[in-house]
Design a protein that fits this description.
68% helix, single chain, mainly alpha
């Protein structure tokens, strides 16, 4: 649902007008921000359920949550990429 049921028609019209004026890059940045916010919420929930976990363990739990129980090969491929990524690249950057 794009709008809350209590959003006025004028507010909807204004928001749509603003969004239409955004460039594709700006819209993509907005989506990227939303994904990062969702990731942070998920990791926060994992931290509450697993308080003794290290940041690396929480990241691994998050990836398993997102990728599913058969994530082993994908996680191992990512680990091998981050171990071999040259300094200064974002190949090992967590999303």
């Amino acid at each position: 649902m794009l709008f809350s049921p209590d959003t006025s028609l004028e507010a909807r019209r204004l928001l749509i007008e603003i969004l239409r004026k955004k460039t594709p890059a700006e819209k993509l940045a907005m989506v990227d921000d939303l994904i990062e916010t969702a990731r942070r919420f998920a990791i926060s929930g994992l931290r509450l359920r697993h308080p003794g976990s290290s940041p690396e363990e929480l990241e691994a739990r998050y990836r398993q949550l997102v990728l599913g129980p058969d994530a082993g090969p994908a996680l191992e491929a990512r680990r091998s990429r981050t171990r071999t990524a040259p300094q200064g690249t974002d190949a090992g950057r967590a999303h």
